[in-house]
Write a structure and sequence with these properties.
631 residues, alpha/beta, Rossmann fold, Elongation Factor Tu (Ef-tu), domain 3, 4 domains, seven-stranded antiparallel sheet, six-stranded mixed sheet, 28% strand
Length: 631
């Protein structure tokens, strides 16, 4: 049985101990040669260091050794009997944030270090934000240097609470906190004797057992062609690495952009032909038909095509000391394809400290923003949240050949523009209609209704892809609240679509109106001190933001029911995913229509990880902590 490989990255503020932590893992797992250890021990002795400077095992540049900081990304390899690891040790200085993006781009886990003495720093937040932006499925927050705070549990708890409050505003999938001391080895490889209050796993144990491959797309076959092999007139093969999905000989495929169809004849490797190849495999494909294929083309499975557009909505991290120049032509590298592109619009810049969106005319080094791109030739892509390989790109300055930005595709730009225009027009029309309407309150005030019901009103907005378990969780929560005497109202598409919203379809315009009506009904339920449970896909952030805007602050809870798309395709209780993949169902969210994941949800629950009982318990506690219901 082959040993799994985990790629992970480390990040944090300056001098949080990232290189020391990696050195400790290499040292304690006996992954270093004796001459390496002897050299580092001698260097540490010559300096007069009290301990062996484990950071010297990874700080390879002279400037790094002299300043005791990390400047470049250092890659290291080690293995245990259970798993192989590739580590990317990234810098902590703000001017090297772009290096963190480079190191994290292929990682499946990110270790964010926090100095227990200093607590949560701006860089700690910045790296956590970038990790979630890059859709790294697992985040470990290692609270380091616990020996310097006398292994105080209160210090650990305070940092956990502060960082949990911050990371809860992001779309983090799996966050684990571990108290460690990289210098002396507490909870790194071996369990610490000085922190009996910590009952979780050591860092290495967690790394050995965390789920590998969570970020891979095993369904959608995407094969960017890197090179055409023609050793003789009898063989023509197309070499490359499978970006996602899997393929077998005999399967029907389509070559993009030509659209020509064929079948896979053979999957060729140096070790012999394969019966199947899957994501990550580097192979050579041969086809049954003679088709003109070159580098930059993409081979996909027939009936499972990527999106196609030359107008792209994306989030980018600017990595150049020269600022973004909207209107300038940049080279865009997407998989193996290189096309010319232009940033036609900078929507906003993201303030890492506050997570707020700011108006901006340009982006400077290490800044993150949302842009609209136009390319000279259409791209064949999947959204980054569905496929990290075909949903990412880099921008290159043609004058210097330097990489200036790393980007993540969110969708097709005109979808968002159309929606924005529709929503604005609807709201303007609504305001005009309400100009001569006077709101008539009921006989009872909201406070009287709260006293009558014995709890406050709230709106719980469950959003997520079809089949993610929104209604299942909402109904089970409703049953739990009923047992505690809480007044509830349950709303979902199946109950409102046939009646109140029976005149609406599934276009962006109709979806916006559907959610607007639901939000108004939910708002009325809230004024009657009911806990309103709304279960709707509600794919667009602007619609969900509108629902939030008409409910008082602190009483609206956005609940993102997250579930891996591969799991949803397997579940497919109504067969809609299969229909959409065959092209039979238009405007189906997640396949043929976009879904904008919540960026500031009150809580993210993973229905493919936790049971409904566990999730409902979390939601009940959320309502208790917010004072909506009594504990």
């Amino acid at each position: 049985m082959s040993v799994e490989l985990l790629r992970f990255t480390t990040a944090g503020s300056v001098d949080d101990g990232k290189s020391t932590l990696i050195g400790r893992m290499l040292y304690d797992t006996k992954s270093l040669f004796e001459d390496q250890i002897a050299q580092v021990e001698q260097t540490s002795h010559d300096r007069g260091d009290e301990y062996v400077d484990l950071a010297l095992f990874t700080d390879g540049l002279r400037a790094e050794r002299e300043q005791k900081i990390t400047i470049d990304v250092a890659y290291r390899y080690f293995a245990t009997p259970r798993r192989k690891f590739i580590i990317a040790d990234t810098p902590g200085h703000i001017q090297y944030t772009r290096n963190m993006v480079t190191g994290a781009s292929t990682a499946e886990l990110a270790i964010v270090l926090i100095d227990a003495r200093k607590g949560v720093q701006t860089q700690s937040k910045r790296h956590g934000f970038i990790a979630t932006l890059l859709r790294i499925p697992h985040i470990v927050v290692a609270i380091n240097k616990m020996d310097l705070v006398h292994y105080d549990e209160a210090v650990y708890d305070r940092i956990v609470d502060e960082y949990s409050s911050f990371i809860s505003k992001l779309n983090a999938q799996d966050v684990t906190f571990i108290p460690v001391s990289a210098l002396v080895g507490d909870n790194v490889v071996d369990k610490s004797a000085y922190m009996p209050w910590y009952e979780g796993p050591t860092l290495l144990h967690h790394l050995e057992h965390v789920n590998v491959g969570a970020s891979h797309n095993y369904v959608d076959f995407r094969y960017p062609v890197q090179y055409v092999l023609r050793p003789n007139q009898n063989f023509r093969g197309y070499a490359g690495q499978i970006a996602s999905g899997h393929i077998s000989p005999g399967e029907e495929v389509v070559v993009l952009p030509s659209g020509l169809e064929s079948r896979v004849k053979e999957i060729v490797t140096l070790g012999g032909n394969l019966d199947e190849a899957t994501v990550g495999d580097s192979v050579t494909l041969t086809l049954e038909d003679e088709i003109d294929i070159s580098r930059g083309n993409m081979i996909v499975r027939k009936g499972n095509l990527p999106q196609k557009s030359n107008e792209i909505d994306a989030t980018i991290c600017w990595m150049s000391e020269d600022q973004l120049d909207p209107g300038k032509t940049y080279q865009l590298q997407h998989t193996t394809r290189l096309v010319r592109s232009m940033v036609t619009k900078l929507n906003y810049r993201i303030d890492i400290n506050t997570m707020h969106r700011e108006e901006a005319s340009t982006l400077l080094l290490n800044e993150i923003g949302r842009i609209q791109l136009t390319t000279t030739q259409p791209l064949f892509y999947d959204r980054y949240d569905l496929n990290r390989m075909t949903g990412s790109f880099i921008l290159i300055d043609p004058a210097t050949n330097n990489t200036v930005a790393a980007g993540m595709i969110r969708g097709q730009s005109r979808d968002l523009d159309d929606l924005r225009d529709v929503t604005s027009d609807q709201q303007a029309t609504r305001r005009q209609r309400l100009e001569y309407v006077v709101w008539e309150a009921g006989a009872l005030s909201p406070v009287e209704r709260q006293q009558l019901n014995g709890h406050q009103g709230a709106v719980l907005w469950f959003t997520g892809l079809s089949g993610s378990g929104k209604s299942t969780v909402a109904k089970q929560l409703e049953r739990m609240l009923y047992q505690r005497g809480v007044h509830t109202i349950f709303l979902d598409g199946d109950t409102l679509r046939p009646g109140l919203n029976g005149d609406l379809g599934f276009s962006p315009e109709d979806r916006a109106e559907n959610i607007r009506r639901v939000a108004e009904v939910a708002s009325i339920g809230f004024t009657h001190a009911s806990v309103v449970l709304c279960s709707f896909i509600s794919p667009y952030s602007r619609d969900r933001d509108y629902a939030r805007s008409i409910v008082p602050e602190g009483h609206f809870f956005e609940i993102y029911t997250k579930c891996n798309l591969d799991v949803l395709k397997r579940r497919d209780p109504k067969g809609h995913y299969a229909q959409a993949l065959r092209g039979e169902l238009k405007h189906f969210t997640g396949i043929t229509a976009p879904y904008e994941e919540p960026e500031h949800a009150e809580i993210v629950v993973e229905t493919d990880v936790d049971s409904p009982n566990v999730i409902v318990a979390k939601l009940v506690k959320m309502l208790e902590d917010a004072g909506i219901i009594l504990a």
